[in-house]
Specification:
single chain, mainly alpha, 68% helix
Length: 158
């Protein structure tokens, strides 16, 4: 059964963003360039985001940065990851609108750019469905450490 649900999940994560792009470009009568600009913005944000997470992990592992208490590790990681994602992705979107899409300011254009960005982010997580044992975390995400494996540190799992 896990294979069936994994296939459905992967197909949905890959196909649904593309279907949404088709629907929105036709509904709003806008260019695909906006959808692809949003998708490219997500990729650009990850070019710096992932190495920074690796660097932070190294600093926690080698003791340069103090590890949070084990009871707070999950909350610490949630806040850290949320802020890091927000900083990098919002900065990338700001650069996109400030320097590339200077004249695209309507609601419909923003929705199409957001669909490309979010669709690419959604598509990028398809691998989570392929490995129910958690080995999927090879992409540079930081997670709360397992005391048996990491000594309770925050760890980049890739």
């Amino acid at each position: 059964m896990i294979i069936v649900t994994s296939i459905v999940g992967v197909l949905g994560m890959v196909i649904l963003p593309i279907v949404l792009g088709f629907w929105l470009t036709r509904k709003f009568k806008l260019s695909w360039k906006l959808f692809f600009a949003g998708a490219a913005t997500f990729i650009a944000s990850q070019i710096l985001h992932i190495p920074i997470l690796y660097g932070l992990t190294a600093l926690f592992k080698n003791g340069t940065l103090p590890n949070p208490p084990e009871a707070w590790a999950a909350i610490f990681n949630a806040v850290l990851l949320g802020l890091a994602a927000g900083i990098f992705e919002e900065t990338a979107r700001w650069v996109l609108y400030k320097f590339i899409l200077k004249n695209n300011r309507t609601w419909n254009e923003g929705v199409l750019v957001g669909a490309g960005h979010g669709g690419n982010s959604h598509r990028d997580s398809w691998h989570f469905h392929l490995d129910p044992n958690g080995r999927h975390a090879q992409r540079g995400s930081v997670r709360a450490g397992d005391p048996g494996r990491t000594g309770g540190t925050c760890e980049t799992t890739g």
